[in-house]
From TrEMBL:
It comes from Duganella rivi. This is alanine transaminase. Keywords: Aminotransferase, Pyridoxal phosphate, Transferase. It comes from the Bacteria. The lineage of its organism: Bacteria, Pseudomonadati, Pseudomonadota, Betaproteobacteria, Burkholderiales. InterPro entries: Ala_Aminotransferase, Aminotransferase_I/II_large, PyrdxlP-dep_Trfase, PyrdxlP-dep_Trfase_major, PyrdxlP-dep_Trfase_small. Its cofactor is pyridoxal 5'-phosphate.
Amino acid sequence: MRPIQKSNKLAEVCYEIRGPVPEKARQMEEEGHKITKLNIGNLAVFGFDPPDEIVQDMKMNLSNAAGYTDSKGMFAPRKAVMHYTQGKNIRGVSIDDIYLGNGASELIVMSMNALLNNGDEVLVPAPDYPLWTAAVSLSGGKPVHYICDEQQDWYPDIEDMRSKITPNTRAIVVINPNNPTGALYPVELLLQIIELARQHDLIIYADEIYDKVLYDGAEHVSIASLADDILFVTFNGLSKNYRACGYRSGWMVVSGEKSHAKDYIEGLNMLASMRLCANAPGQFAIQTALGGYQSIDDLVGPGGRLLKQRDLAYKLLTEIPGVSVVKPKAALYMFPRLDPKIYPIADDQQFAYELLAETKVLIVQGSGFNWIAPDHFRVVFLPNSDDMVEAFGRMAKFMESYRKRHGASF
C-alpha cells in the first residue's frame, strides 16, 4: 500500500515541549521510573490549584453549558474581559473586539490563519514560545526570528528586529512577560517596538498570558495601552494567572487602528464561526476569575510559594559550575546558559536525552524554543522545594560527570 504521508505544511512545525524527549520520559514512566518533569508549566500537577470560587462557579453553571454559545463567546465573560482591558489602559475596546477561545493557543493559531498568505513573514522572538513559530509556519508564513539579548536581561534587540523587516513582513510578535526567559519589558522598549511597527505598517501580536505572575514588585504594561494608531491583537487567559490550564479558557482582544483591518477582522470572524464556539464551562470561569480576589498575588509576593521557589531554583542552578541564569522577573521559567567551554554540546536534544536517562529529570533543550545555539535549556520552578533540591542535585552530579567525560575544565 502507498504510505500515508503527513501534510507538507507540517514540515517546519515542531513543539518540543511535548516532543521526542518527553515521549521518552513517558516510556520510562510506563517502565516504572519516576520522572521529575521540569519541561512544562502545568501548574495543577505541582499542587497549584485554581481558586475555589472559579471551580464552584463552573460546577454551578454546568447545567447551562451544554449548548453552543455565540461564536465569539458569551456576553458576560467578554464584558469582564472588556473591563479587564480598560484596567490595563487599552482604549477603544468593545464587546465585538473580544474573542474567547479554547485557551490562548487556539486563538494564536486562528490569528495567524486569518492573516497570512504563502511567503508572508512574521517577526518572532528567539528564544520564543514555540507555538508562535509553528502557527506562522502552519499558516503558510515564514517565521523570522529576532534575537533577544541575554546580556541585556533578555530584552529584544531592536536593531536586529529592524534589520529583519522586509517588504513581506506583516507583523511582530511580542511575548511579555516572556516564556522561556522570564523577562519583563520596560515601557521604553515597548515604545521602540511600536515605532518600528508604525514605520513599517505592521501588526503587533502581544502574548501576555503571564501578566500577573510578577516578582519583586514588578509591574506589567500592556503594549496595546501605549498607542492607538496601529493594530494590536492581545492574548491572555486563565491557564497561568489562575492555575487553570486544563480549563482551556483564553481570550483575544483586537484594539488600536481597526478601520483599515476590516477584512482581516472579517477573517477572524469566519474562523471563530467555523469552530462554532469555545468550550462553555471554561467561559463560565472567566467572569469570576477576573472579578474576584487575585490569589496569584499571594503566590508571587513576599513569602509566596512561587517567589520562594524562583529564588531557590536560581540559587541551585547558579551554584553549578559553568551554568549562568538571568533571574526572571516574571512567569514560571528559567532559561539557563551552559558555558560552551565547559559543556561542549553539539546536539542539545541529545544532551536532554542523556540528562533524562541518567537523572530522571526532564527539561526542554534551548533549540526547542528556536534558540540559535545548543547552549541553553528551559526549566520550570514549580516543584516544591524539597523536590527541586533533589532534582537539581541530580542535575549537578550529571553536569559534573558530563564535564569529566568531555574533558572540560573550569
